[in-house]
Amino acid sequence: MPRNAMADWLATRAPEQLQLIADRAALRRHGGDLSLTDLARLLSQDYVAAELVKFCTLPEIQALGAVSWLADQRHGPFPEEHWRAPDPRSRAVPRSEVIDLLAGDDPRLRAEAEAALDRLADQALLLPPHGEQVVAHNYVHRALTDGMALGRPAGQLISRHFNAPEVHRVAAGLGLEKAATRTAAEQDVLAVLADPARLRAVLDAAPEEAKELLQPLAYEGPLVETRCFHPVGPYGYSSTGKYTFFPGGSGHRGVDWLAARGLLLPSGLPNIAELPMEVALAVRGETRSSFHPRPPSPPELPGAERAEAGSQSALVAVAWQIERLLAACAEQPLAVRKAGGIAVRDTKRLAKLLRLPEETVRFLLELCVRADLLGALAEPVERPANRRVKAPDPTYVVLPTTRYDRWLSLPPAERLVPVLAAWAVCRDIPLWWPDPDQTPIALAAADDPDAVGLRYALLEALAAAPGRRAAAAPEYLVAATTWHRPMRVAEGADGAQRIAATVREAGLLGVIADDALTALGHALLGLLRSGQAWRAPGPVLGPVLAGLLPPPQTTARFQTDLTAVVSGTPEAGLAALLNAVGTRESEGHAVVWRISPASVRRALDTGHEAEDLLRQLRAVAQGDFPQPLEYLIKDVGRTHGRMRVVRSGCCVRSEDEALLAELAGAKALRKLGLRLIAPTVLISASSERETMDALRAAGYAPALEAETGVTLVEEPAARRAPARKS
């Protein structure tokens, strides 16, 4: 097709439609960045068409298959060699014949077939001009040549895979007289298979085992796994592509009866036989394609009464879990294995610390990495003194990125926006591990191009049963998900397991609750439908999350048992203050901090003054401020800083001479080599950092002092991985 024909057609499309085509074709660029000529050129590429086909529903795939099959009948098989690919216009087929194949004389089905062809044209899989002739992309002819599940013609299979003895054997099985040559025998066999009346007579004489096998092969697909034919050649391999019959047969009476008469033929794949097209058409009784224009209807299901409440609970929980996970990674970065992924011991440590299942920890780590909140950082490598010796390979750790500190300052709803957006377009199913015999490794999964399509199809299946517990009907979910994205859902157990894992992920994020799709799930589905999930999800997700999550709390209730309680999610500043002065003990609908002498000393160590700390706590107190807590902070404040570690290699000074004498004689501090050089001064053989750590480990509360006598606030440098996005 001339390139300008496609460009002219593209010029008539709305910008939103062009953007959706670009998104689906994995171009990931704004429509304005691509000229129409460039977009037309890209749409002619096979890899682009392959991506677009994977976004098709089942009836759209069936319509493309009908177009490809009809083109084969009219113009011959599509060339296997890429360099011989013809002009797509040379394989055009009449639109009316495609609709006849899909719908016959049924007016409702004909309207559905028309609509399917129109949608394919809008997706650039049927090429312009759109009129009475249907022109499909060459990729469609190459990939969907058996789109009607009819198999290849018998003549093609026989000539490609049989030698003369096998052809004569099939002729004999059909009761034909022995021909003089292989060619004549093949013509006699094909004459029977091409004559509907003669073939019908052969099929009527088939045993029941053969008839039971013919029905699914004729309607669902032409291939069957059986040891009926084996390659002609040593070691089970044929360089010529020829096959012969197993001497003892396949062990299945129906298979052997069909194979002996040429009604099952070698497919060219080991242990796979194929039903020829002529036989499938005879069994069907008409030349019709399978066509399912509507998705499966949901079964009768109970209502989901607590979906939105469950969604809110899940979101509160996951927001808190992610906050704690990121804080744990900031405190102790995760080691990266040489083979990739997070060390199992680190995953187990996080699971124990957060009191979560290991698979949930792996899931949250994946989302945080994809949301650009966690990233990898190379550890410094000490270069060998000898330059001829190769430097060791760097080791990597995973820790929060430079985006993390700003993320901490956001309210809970805004924190969850990048996490939910990352899940929507995540090219992985983190809770699905393909090999049950291997230990799952966090952040080690390969790129999964089908994950997003499967996720979208699952949300569509759930949306078809609004307010009902569709996630509790796995058979419906598999059937409906497959209908929406047949090219994205694996067949058999793997497909069902991947769907079940995606359901569990959606439940953890509040996308599904009480086995039903929630308001948040509907919002994510809308983003995937429009393509906005890849570009600007915030304006859609932000209001939905803000409506589900209560506003963060700015006050705490301080109790006489030295605990602070926040009902709901604490605001970032409140959480930072309470984390500084207390130890977080519980989570859920209420968050509890335990305040102790050790936690108050920790706050004073980081630069807080006792009076200033009391002032800040009173400012956020809900109700009366308990006296026991006030006494505790003042008592710790009086003893804090009674001795000083001087930055001079180093000295410890204090006005309390008895305290320094006690330090000089303490067994726990012998490794410091403390020596009293004046009533108020000790010197230490260790550095200031080691001295401070040892004193604190022994239960004392030193403060760091500069040479000028000014107390220094200790602020450990926060390590951050570089963010991927600007």
TrEMBL record:
Organism: Nonomuraea corallina
Domain Helicase XPB/Ssl2 N-terminal: 559-678
Region entry Disordered, spans: 286-307
UniProt GO MF annotations: helicase activity
One Pfam family per UniProt: Helicase_C_3
This protein's UniProt keywords: ATP-binding, Helicase, Hydrolase, Nucleotide-binding
Name the record gives this protein: Helicase-associated domain-containing protein
